[in-house]
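Model it.
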Amino acid sequence: MASFSILRHKRVQEQIADYVRDKINSGDFTPGMKLPTTLELAAMWKTNSATVSDALKPLVKEGFLYRTRRIGTFVRKREEKLTCVGIYHTENNWTDNTMGFERAVHAEVTKQLKSEGIQTRLWVDSRPTAEQGAPWPELVRAAENREIQGLIGMGGGWSQLRWRNKLPIPSAHMTGANIPNRVNGDIEHFVELSLRSLVEQGCRSVGLIAPFSPVKTVNPDGTHHVLMGLFEHFTNRTRDLGLEMRNEWVRVPRDEENSPRQSQERFGHEEFLKLWSQSKRPEGLIVYPDTTVRSVILAMREKQVRVPEELKLIFHKNESIDLLCPMPATFVISSEREFARALIEQLRKQFQGERCEPITVPFRLGGQEEI
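Modeled.
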């Protein structure tokens, strides 16, 4: 195997990956060819074996290489197109009534892939929660044998994400973790649309109900969950826009134990009643997500709140999930079609040997509606 010169201005891993990828694409490295060991390649390219190993990992994901334990790394016959994609859920997420949007995205992913002749396989991880942090052997085997050529992960915690993202196939994940192949909603865009809409409606003060703690818990990679930015951006933008915001109007869990999924419907109902019991109330209210919106509507009906005279409303809504709202409200809408399109795009980029960047999906302002 020929050597090449390492350049200083570019990451060594990227240079090695690009070199091997180009050799396979040009036909210089043929299917079935065995590569030298990482130690031998490191010596040849004047670097270390860990760097070489890291450089080859994305080529395994992309289908250029495959590894056989204790035998070596080989050039794989390149697959021309995606034919089967796995979709992963934990059993809790699959059955949880607050995860309707994830299931809607799943349905849209299946629909979009089917239109391209690509099959999907559902993987619901029914293992006890304590065991889900370890690789799922059946799914690992399916990935290693290329029974599925890519995986889309719907939610799940950091412990599941770590091993899913190490599978030897392209993967994309709905998550707020700091990984390049993630897809998540642009929560700052949600806040921006919501606050600006209230300003346009003449609001001078605003409250928030959201069942997500502002406490910044840290993932093992040093990142914070994307939803932690909801409270921070809300606080900063209310100040920038000159809106009054009081601590007692911001109804969020005050400790991480009650977040993020203490019954979202119960939370919304109880927190609106607490908000409305105060002597001074905000002129506008933002509620996120839609599962919390439903119970806030119920509490408002109980209290016979006059809308929009007493309170102007900004509600989150998922595009394909019905939300009965018997009062005027402005909806900020998330689209399962855009999420599905972004997840598929992340898979396709990796399959084609392109590098991924995180995709944040914008929201859409739905205007005032009354159903």
